[in-house]
Amino acid sequence: MAQKDINGVLLDYHNRLKSMYDKQNIMELRESRLNKKVSKFQGNFMSAKEACMAQQRDCKVQKVLQQRHHELEERILFEKQLAQELEDTRQRNLAMREQLKQERQINNELMECIHILKETTGTYINHDALPARVKGVVARRDIDGEQWIPFDLAAIDADGFESLFQKLHNANVDVEKWRQLVSLAADFSTESRSSATPRKDDAKCSPIIEIDLTSPPNQA
Predict the structure, then answer these.
(1) Closest CA to 186 of 129, 136, 120, 139
(2) pTM of the model
(3) pLDDT digits over 24-55, tens only?
(4) Over the stretch 67-76, which tens digit does the pLDDT of each residue have?
(5) Spatial contact of 125 and 178, defined as CB atoms under 8 Å apart
(6) Which residues contact 217 (CB under 8 A, 6 or more apart)?
(7) Which residue, among 192, 191, 189, 177, has the nearest Cα to 126 in the 3D structure?
(8) Looking at CB atoms within 10 Å, which of 14, 108, 131, 145 has the fewest?
(9) What pairs with residue 154 in β-bridges?
């Protein structure tokens, strides 16, 4: 082979090698750039993933916080309602105590008035018979001795009352005060029956006014 042909082959071989080397460099450069892009993409992806996970955690925390805030508002509202109910109950109790106090005072005054009229007229009344019947006894003491005037009349027995009034008048009993006594006792008996059921301790108490035919009558 001629020297010229050898040089041509070498030159062609050199060009091919150079072309292959240049292509390899280009491929490595592209691979490097691609690796950088992939690395950057992976970095961005991981950052986005972490940001998404953090946002999800924040959403869960916000949801829990909202739920706790809602529960706290409901608890505060319940406590306010409970406090208002307690205050209303306290006010009702105070009003009931004041009403009971006034009723007790009125009853005491009524009982005192009944007691005075009973002593004045010498009358003992069976409260259990009221208001349907007026039952009891009037005890008087004069120069002739003791005089007992028992009575047991239906509340609507007008003739019976007229006859009783005449007997009381003849015995020097103040008929008007006697009428007032019977009226007050009837009112007191009616109010007592219409009130609440008495307690066990109250049930053990003796009646306000009892008929005691064995005791001597009081002097009018």
Answers:
(1) 129
(2) 0.47
(3) 888 888 888 888 888 888 888 888 888 888 88
(4) 999 999 999 9
(5) no
(6) 122, 139, 140, 141, 146, 148
(7) 189
(8) 145
(9) 133
Query: For residues 163-201, b (16+ Cβ closer than 10 Å) or e, as one string?
Result: ebeeebeebebeeebbebbbebbbebbeeeeeeeeeeee
Q: DSSP characters for the chain?
A: --HHHHHHHHHHHHHHHHHHHHHHHHHHHHHHHHHHHHHHHHHHHHHHHHHHHHHHHHHHHHHHHHHHHHHHHHHHHHHHHHHHHHHHHHHHHHHHHHHHHHHHHHHHHHHHHHHHHHHHHTEEE-GGGTTTEEEEEEEEEETTEEEEEEEEEETT-HHHHHHHHHHHHHTT--HHHHHHHHHHHHHHHHHHHHSPPPPHHHHTSPPSS---TTSPPPP-
Q: What are the CA-CA distances from residue 3 to residues 11, 15, 20, 66 (Å)?
A: 12, 18, 25, 92
CA distance 5 to 138: 171
Distance CA 125, CA 138 (A): 9
Is the pLDDT at 201 greater than 60? The verdict is: no
Two tokens, residue 102:
């006034």
Q: Is-contact 127 210, C-beta < 8 A? A: no
How deeply is 111 buried, as exposed, middle or buried, from its count of CB atoms within 10 A (0-12, 13-18, 19+)?
middle
Pick from 162, 129, 134: nearest CA to 150:
134
146's CB contacts (< 8 A; 6+ apart) are: 139, 140, 216, 217
Per the CB < 8 A criterion, the answer to whether 213 and 137 are in contact is: yes
The tokens of 210 are what? Answer: 């009892």
